[in-house]
Amino acid sequence: MKIITGGALLLDVLVQCGIKHVFSISGEHIGTVYDAFEKFPEIHLTVPRCETAAALMASGYTASTGCSSVAMSTVGAGVIYEVSGLSKAWFNYLPVLSIAPQLQSWKIKPHQENLQGCNQDEIFFPITKWNTIVYTWERIPQMIYRAFREAWQGIPGPVHIDIPVDILFRYKVLTKKKRQSIMPPAERTMYRGAIAGDAFCLKEACETIQKSERPIIILGQGFGRPGRYQGMKEAANRLGIPVITTVHSSGVFCGDDYCYAGDASLFMNSTSGMELLNKTDLLIIAGIDPYSERILSAIKNSSHVKGIVQVEIDPSSFADSIPNLCPVHADPGSSFSYFERETKTNKNAFRAWRDDFYKNCDLLAIELSKEFKDARGIFASLKNISSSNDIFIVDGKELSLAASCFFRKAIYKNLFIMDDRDIPGAGLPFAIGAAIGNPDNNVVLICDKNSLFYHIRELQPAVSMGLEFTIICVDTVNKNNNVADTRLVLEGMDCPVKEIDPLSIKRDDIVKGKIKKPCAMMIM
After folding, report:
1. Contact at 8 Å (CB) between 248 and 220?
2. Which of 275, 291, 270 is CA-nearest to residue 366?
3. Which parts of the sequence belong to the Thiamine pyrophosphate enzyme central domain (predicted)?
């Protein structure tokens, strides 16, 4: 028997659910949670400089490890700052749990005017799968379990829980019997099921694929996590159909995958790229997002396109007003395995189409790469010195486009590209979260100067934690600009800086154990 607070009970539940990292800004309203951290050494607390960075670090941790993490903020303003960072998890289908304190339970719903008080659950509603308020001490475990189930089932995504401050600060006796009654086995919270598709829809889609001669697969949202839809990847390689990824599925396929053609940016930023896509007679889309939707709208009326197969977990994602659409509401992994197993057509025809498509992609990459001199050198160096276990984060518009050209043939299974829907400078806190979650892997952030400076102060907690990762910074706006100001800021945070030619990056510049701390390379 022991007497504990609601904050201690919260951490106890998180331990039972397998959570190892919490990213949080301290505040008076979550004082009991912070007091309880010393009693639960299984959970590591990371304190960034702002709530936005806390959510981005949690997203980076979850994206690179495939495990849930927790972002915790404070009442009112803290919650508002967290929202912009949590949008990264929302757009990339990352199961991050957001927890925030709330005013006393008798002052909310309807809201009573108070300092920093606001309807927090309504603020999080547009960017979370599920959110709730915990009104009683005993229901903390139940709501945490429910949150993880909601985060993982169907399409994964972030969830949010508000816990009133009087619940967090309330002391109660927790006997062994009572603990067992309010904490069911944690494995019940970890949903790993898959949605089986309708037999008629799967058969119709399979027949459509068999009739095609030049199909293309486009992967969008929800695939950029380790092990996500592994069956789909293996099936696509065996089918021999060219695969295009977007920034939300970067890293799922890489240079050693037979069917991988490249990133969508490779095609969307040139006329010849769109002409190449218009040769297809069947578009197979899984996890539609703004990038794949843009390709769909551009080629749906092409005279060559005979049909469109769309595989989605969420039926609301099916494209509207599309002729010859064959919708499949199912898990993409099991669906693609079914397509590969039931397709009776000679797969050599698909492979011949893939080989021809791949040659044209090579020419397209060469055409686009002429615009990125510095990036060409950076990625050429990294291709020669990196291993398949290294983690790369790319931030910056020009660099992201360059990565689409130069990373398509590299063996990078852990590649995360920040896109235009992310808040500016998301790359640095995202990289810190990845470094925390992968202590044995080398983490490299490739960014431009403007992106680096948005969250530059997050380097301070990274240095204090002894994290080791590499920042490769190139000024894509002001070429040959003096880097003295950047060097001064970075060195002031105890982050070593060296100016380097992009072609002279060495393995020791990115390997943990050699760099000792966050290190920056300024490309001259």
Report:
1. yes
2. 270
3. 202-334
